[in-house]
Structure formats: C-alpha cells, structure tokens
Amino acid sequence: MYKLIKNSGAARRGEFTTPHGTVQTPAFMNVATCGAIKGGLSALDLKDLKCQVQLCNTYHLHLRPGDENVKKLGGLHQFTRWDGPILTDSGGFQVFSLAKLRNITEEGVTFASHIDGHKIFMGPEESMRIQSHLASTIAMAFDECVENPAEYDYARSSCQRTVRWLYRCKAEMDRLNLQPDTINPRQMLWGINQGSTFEDLRIENMKQIRELDLDGYAIGGLAVGETAEEMYRIIEAVEPEMPKDKPRYLMGVGTPANILESVKRGVDIFDCVMPSRNARHGHAFTWDGCRNMMNAKYTLDEKPLDEHCDCPVCRNFTRAYIHHLFKSGEMLAMRLCVMHNIYFYNSLLEQIRSSLDQNCFEEFYSNNILKLGARI
C-alpha cells in the first residue's frame, strides 16, 4: 500500500508498505543481480549503508542456482539473509540485452543462455512462476524493452503485446498466490509502461495498464539509447496518467543528477547498477561530483573520499589508501568504493526525502543539481 504524504510540485514524498517492511520514498533500490552486490558486499553490509530495498535478477537466478533450488532453500530472503523488501525484475530486460540470442513470439521469448548457449523459453507465465519460486516481495510483469531509437510501428506492436502479456502475468500470479506451497502468497505485481520515445504510445499504454489496478507501476524502456532530455520528456508525458495512489518506479536510472531530475518530475523509486559498477572502476560519487580514484593526484591525499560523507569508508580511510589499493589491484579497493557509492546514493535519497519533509525541495534541487553532475 502506498501513502502519499505530500507534494512539492510534481515531486512526491510517500511511504510504501509491503509484507517485508515499509519503504520511505523517494527511494533507491540496490542491485544484487545474483543475490549479492557486486564488489564483495553481503545483505548484512547493506544494513549499514542505509539500504531499503534489494533488487535481484530473475533471468540470472533462473540460470544459477535455479529458481526451484532457491525455493527449496526458502526463497531469496532466506537464501541471501536480506530481511527487507526484495524486487525481482521479470527477465524482460534480457529480451532487450540479449537481442542477438533471442526469438520473440506471442507466447514469449526463446533465449540462448549467455552461459552455455542452451535454449531457454520464458513467457509471462514462466516469469511469474520463477518469481514466485524466488518469493520476492515485488514481481515485475514480463515485458519487452525496445531499444531507442525505435521504429514507430514496431514500438506500437510491442506495446500492444506487452499489455496482452500483462493480463497473462496477473492471471498467473493470482493463481500462484493461492497455491498451498507458495512461499510468499502476498507477492505484489507491478506493471511496466513502454512505448519507446513516442508520447502517444506511452500515454495510451499507461491508460491501458492502470486499468488492472496493480500494486505499482514502472516506466521501462528508458536510459537505453535516448538522451537525458528525451527521458525527462517521456516522464513528464506519462506522469499525469500514472495512478496517484501507487508507487512509481523508473527502471535502470541512473546518475545522481538523473535521480534528482526524475524526483522533480514525480518518480518515487529508482534502481541502477551505476553506483557499484562505477565504483569497481575507481569512480567515487561525492557531493562535489565524481572522483576518479585512479588519478595520480590522490597519491598523497589524506582526505576521505568525500569530506561531506559519514559512511564507514569515509570515516576510516583516505583517498591515498584507496588510490593505492586500486593501483595495486587489491579487491579491497572495489569493496570500499562500492560501499561508499551505495551509501552515497542512499544518503542522496534520504536528503531528498528530508528536503520534501521540510518544504525546501526546490532549494535542495537548485543547490545540488550542477554539483551532482560534475566530474572532479
């Protein structure tokens, strides 16, 4: 259940109650693709980094260790030891990312496994069954993500198929939640808005999927080739058609500046691999912009990664030490930088929430939007 607490323009301050805890929004979901944050972090680490929600990948967990094995082990919460909300994507993004290894039909998608090439079929029913086995808090509907720029006619037919798939997802989830051996019979289903960069398709699609009165709604198919300006334009077009009493999730986005811009346009929830992926390559996000810890100028720098940050890394280690770890190829370099970046992202959302609570979001936006997008 979503409760809207207050608005600042289109920006929303709310809270979302789930069977595994209440999420304060706007919020960032931390990406644990295979059940772990890349960079050597466990669910126990996430507790110290202000994390609220963990996101896991349906496709990858279906391949390894196998969703039926996860079910035998008690579901993702028992398996990973994360006791807060977990969202699982549907596998639909792999329809996009494995474009050279797929075949799409009305029934679903045939993949070639990226691991060993064996054939996998996934449709709406298969995706729902896999996610039910994983026992996540929130299951995403099975959809097709279209690469931008897309041809109008293909984007339209893809949207129509995604809506038909959504009805099948809902019917299968309703059935699964009634089964006696279902681990999480209160699993939620969120629908995904598609339509490439075409406003009319996006609006029509949103009107169609909101009729199902789902637990939440996502905007998918963005940050996949279009400019940031196009992304913001689509959010602005879709937002008025999104239910006011349901959480709004912008999938796979993005930079700190992207998040701040999207909150301003009415988005509640985000996920992105950027904080962990960039950290593993030595890029630390700070309140002054992004630092490349490979740079020689940090060799003797005794300041923390971010002088405005109180994360466990900034409280204990210097830029010089982290620079040395990266240059030496030490695994600890990645772990420390990932910890910092995840803490930074969650702190950013925490401060956005605080600014909304205190009726000063516009001031917070103005003071930080340029700095957050800077490279140091």
Automatic annotation (TrEMBL):
GO terms for molecular function: glycosyltransferase activity. It is an enzyme of class 2 (transferase). Residues 10-367 form the tRNA-guanine(15) transglycosylase-like domain. The active site is at D89 (proton acceptor), D271 (nucleophile). The keyword Glycosyltransferase applies. It catalyses: 7-aminomethyl-7-carbaguanine + guanosine(34) in tRNA = 7-aminomethyl-7-carbaguanosine(34) in tRNA + guanine. Its cofactor is Zn(2+). Zn(2+) binds at C309, C311, C314, H340. Keywords: Glycosyltransferase, Metal-binding, Queuosine biosynthesis, Transferase, tRNA processing, Zinc. Substrate binds at D89, S90, G91, G92, F93, D143, Q194, G221. Belongs to the queuine tRNA-ribosyltransferase family. This is Queuine tRNA-ribosyltransferase. It comes from Caproiciproducens faecalis. The gene is tgt.
